């Protein structure tokens, strides 16, 4: 006995449920406000359309063949000896080949053009970057579990709040104080990772004023879900007012304040720093904020000069932090320099004071 057919109204329930679920979505990826994000959106749409040129016909013919050659179809001829059709073979292989070539070419060109390290060559479609327009540099540090934004040219910093003028190139330099993370403002540009002791870059621009959502897009521990921030796209005048407000009402961010800020915390409020110690981002990047450890770039310089012999090593001491040269006789840095120099010249090693012993 065949089962009764369900009422047609029941067939509409899945469609209604999907409509209700999608009604609360904010499709910011498909409607971004930054030129880089717009180009990335266009690349996704074109790539999807090219793939659908294969997927849709394949699905159609699967359904067609299943219907036409069903067991109950007695009207068409049954030919069990059929094995080959040149016309079908050409269609099956040539169409996907053309699509793959087109998709590969578009993706190759698009991904190189949208390289996050590449400086912008346009502010929007048909609007190139003026020769005298300097990018605004923002140094980004992902922490447990908050975001620190330093504006080195302006001498200010913020926590969990980012602002930028519209139609001005933005150059982000990003690192992490602890674990690997990911900086993501969907309306601005694609996701970029941050890693301790390493620097990544992102060049982007925001073209519309507004308030946008920024987030951490890489799980980093207990406070990850609240590691969000607001990104404000402002007119030039409003951005200048915002900078003046931060500068007048903010605290001072020096090494001591940073070490306190670096302690893990959840749901941190927005903070403003009206003055930032010069070179703070460099020591954050090189893992030597506390001045008790040699910076990574100084270690790299020692490694490089280790191949230059003793004269090259003798010049390293003058570039070490004063705390290392004067007050840290048993520091790893002194032992490191001395070990390298002893290996190269057993008769005498260069100490951190620059003298041969």
From TrEMBL:
Regions that span the bilayer: 43-69, 90-110
Cellular localisation: Cell membrane; Membrane
Domain Cytochrome oxidase subunit II transmembrane region profile: 21-118
Name the UniProt record assigns to this protein: Ubiquinol oxidase subunit 2
Gene of this entry: cyoA
Family: Belongs to the cytochrome c oxidase subunit 2 family.
Top-level taxon in the UniProt lineage: Bacteria
Topological relation to the membrane, as annotated: Multi-pass membrane protein
Keywords per UniProt: Cell membrane, Electron transport, Lipoprotein, Membrane, Oxidoreductase, Palmitate, Respiratory chain, Signal, Transmembrane, Transmembrane helix, Transport
Annotated Cytochrome oxidase subunit II copper A binding domain residues: 133-245
Primary localization class, coarse: membrane
């Amino acid at each position: 006995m065949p089962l009764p057919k369900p009422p047609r109204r029941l067939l509409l329930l899945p469609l209604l449920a999907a409509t209700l679920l999608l009604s609360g979505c904010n499709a910011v990826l498909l409607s971004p406000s930054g030129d880089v994000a717009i180009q990335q959106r266009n690349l996704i749409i074109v790539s999807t359309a090219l793939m659908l040129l294969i997927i849709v016909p394949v699905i159609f013919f699967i359904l067609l063949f299943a219907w036409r050659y069903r067991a109950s179809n007695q009207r068409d001829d049954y030919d069990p000896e059929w094995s080959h059709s040149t016309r079908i073979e050409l269609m099956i292989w040539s169409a996907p080949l053309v699509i793959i070539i087109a998709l590969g070419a578009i993706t190759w060109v698009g991904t190189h053009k949208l390289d996050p390290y590449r400086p912008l060559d346009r502010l929007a479609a048909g609007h190139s970057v003026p020769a005298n327009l300097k990018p605004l540099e923002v140094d980004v540090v992902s922490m447990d579990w908050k975001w620190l934004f330093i504006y080195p040219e302006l001498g200010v910093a913020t926590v969990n709040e980012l602002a930028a003028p519209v139609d001005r190139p933005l150059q982000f330099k990003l690192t992490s104080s602890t674990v690997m993370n990911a900086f993501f403002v969907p309306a601005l540009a694609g996701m970029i990772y941050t890693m301790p002791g390493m620097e990544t870059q992102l060049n982007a621009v925001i073209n519309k004023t507004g308030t946008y959502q920024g987030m951490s897009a890489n799980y980093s521990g207990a406070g990850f879900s609240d590691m969000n921030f607001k990104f404000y796209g402002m007119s030039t005048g409003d951005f200048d007012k915002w900078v003046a407000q931060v500068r007048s009402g903010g605290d001072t961010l020096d090494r001591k304040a940073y070490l306190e800020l670096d302690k893990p915390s959840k749901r941190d409020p927005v903070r403003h720093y009206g003055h930032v110690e010069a070179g703070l981002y460099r020591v954050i990047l090189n893992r030597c904020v506390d001045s008790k450890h040699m910076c990574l770039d100084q270690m790299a310089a020692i490694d490089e000069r280790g191949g230059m012999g003793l004269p090259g090593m003798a010049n390293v001491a003058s570039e070490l932090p004063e705390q290392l040269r004067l007050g840290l006789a048993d520091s790893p840095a002194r032992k490191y320099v001395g070990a390298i120099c002893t290996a190269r010249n057993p008769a005498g090693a260069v100490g951190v004071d620059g003298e041969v012993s």
